[in-house]
Specification:
The complex is a heterodimer of chains A (368) and B (67). By secondary structure, chain A is mainly alpha-helical. Helices cover 74% and strands 1% of the residues of chain A. Classes of the chains: A mainly alpha (368), B mainly alpha (67). Chain B: The chain crosses the membrane at residues 6-21, 28-50.
Chain lengths: 368, 67
């Protein structure tokens, strides 16, 4: 198999769809009520330094992915141990996202269908695309992003008659405390989840492209999430938004243009599925790539089917019910994800900078 | 349902791990077989409606213990 390279545009599409994946379903975490959009903007700003660290890793280790970096910096044993943690994280994240979709279909769309059925269908689709390779995923992401943006734009326009500006007032009613708490939570879910993309850094074309891809992706995805969050607030109001599991779906269901264009939420739900498909596929690819690196396999494709099936089964028994899912997503995940998104990458970056300086000094000394 | 699972996994084993063995990728075959065993065990347990312990309560416990 030749080395897979995907252009920056397709990588950016993957990053955008990955970040908006679950947020389209679940909305952003919300103690801040009608000021949640401010929390989203702050979170976007807080995520930028982290994104720059991730991008710097690509410059320090050109042509290497997260697992190669961990093994070359921390050594064969400790590096492989940390790689196993990331394999778990990506497998778990993929299962969590699949479960979001399962709960969504069970609660609002396919209420009589067993939850595992839609999750298995999406899971098999992800297995297929990951087996086909990252190039296929990139091309799918580019097409699906255009479709997603078009649907989101049309839905935003159709929602305008339902906007009630008073829902946004009074601004910062409960003060800055909840806004900063929400901003902290929103950094980890969804923005810093893009740490998963480090596991696919080998597909990026050249040395400096990671910063462009990641920053563009985070800014566009952040703008989309903020736009959707403001729409939900304007249509439903902060009290209803905070009481719903899937506020976007309900906000779209309120659209009624002349008693003719109504109940389009089913069609809008296709967008949820497209974003989720890309997110789960990237998680599956990165976990399989990790297994291939840790066990020195010939190709990650050898384990795609089994890892994909394990991911689907895990998503079935990971939570007891939707309340546990909501609690985990908004209260536990932001702390659970910190080591994977912040501590380990920062340690890796600091160690890599020291190693790079040492090697450049050695090179200078040998020249003299 | 458990019978279907066994039949489906018989086909999966034939195509996935055994296919790797036929290609001569021994290391890939061993890892794939181990994962296949895990995957089959989970599928069989789910089809039998056995209770599989979820990792979530453990994670919640650890996070609550730390913070």
């Amino acid at each position: 198999m030749g080395k897979e390279i995907i252009p920056a545009g397709q990588s950016t599409s993957i990053v955008i769809l990955f970040i908006i994946g679950s947020s389209l379903f679940m909305g952003a975490s919300g103690q801040s009520g009608n000021s949640s959009w401010i929390a989203l903007i702050i979170a976007m700003a807080l995520a930028v330094p982290l994104i720059l660290v991730y991008a710097r890793l690509h410059v320090l280790f050109p042509g290497k992915d997260l697992y190669d970096m961990l093994i070359s910096v921390f050594g064969a044993y400790f590096g492989r141990g940390l790689s196993c943690l990331y394999i778990w994280y990506t497998l778990h994240l993929g299962a969590l996202v699949l479960r979001n979709f399962g709960e969504f279909s069970k609660t609002v769309a396919l209420t009589s269908t067993p939850m595992i059925a839609p999750m298995l269908i999406i899971g098999l689709l992800c297995i297929w695309v990951v087996n086909a390779g990252m190039e296929v995923l990139g091309r799918s992401a580019k097409f699906l992003l255009l479709f997603t943006l078009a649907v989101i734009f049309v839905v935003q326009l159709l929602s305008v008659p339902k906007y009630e500006i008073h829902h946004l007032k009074p601004l910062l009613d409960s003060g800055w405390g909840p806004v900063f708490a929400d901003a902290g939570g929103t950094v980890t879910f969804p923005f810093a989840e893009i740490v998963v993309f480090l596991g696919a850094f080998t597909v990026l074309p050249k040395k400096g492209s990671a910063a462009r891809v990641l920053l563009r992706g985070v800014l566009v995805a952040g703008t989309i999430i903020t736009g959707i969050s403001v729409r939900n607030l304007l249509v439903l109001g902060p009290d209803i938004v905070s009481s719903l599991y899937f506020p976007s779906y309900v906000a779209v269901s309120r659209i009624n243009v002349g008693d003719f264009l109504t109940r389009i939420e089913g069609s809008a739900a296709i967008v949820f599925v497209t974003a989720l498909f890309i997110k789960v596929s990237l998680c599956l690819y990165v976990s399989c790539n990790g297994i291939a690196k840790v066990f020195k396999l010939k190709s990650y494709r050898s384990v795609v089917l089994q890892m994909g099936l394990i991911m689907v089964y895990l998503s079935d028994f990971i939570y007891m019910d939707i309340m546990q899912m909501q609690y985990f997503a908004y209260h536990i995940y932001k702390i659970y994800a910190l080591p994977f998104q912040v501590f380990i990458p920062l340690t890796l970056w600091a160690s890599a900078e020291v190693m790079a300086k040492r090697s450049s000094r050695k090179a200078e000394a040998s020249q003299q | 349902m458990p019978i279907y699972i066994v039949l489906i996994y018989a086909v999966i084993v034939l195509f996935d791990p055994y296919g790797l063995l036929k290609q001569g990728n021994k290391r890939d075959f061993y890892v794939c077989s181990a994962l296949c065993l895990v995957s089959f065990s989970l599928a069989f347990a789910l089809s039998m409606h056995w209770e599989i312990p979820s990792p979530s309560p453990l994670i919640v416990h650890v996070v609550k213990m730390l913070f």
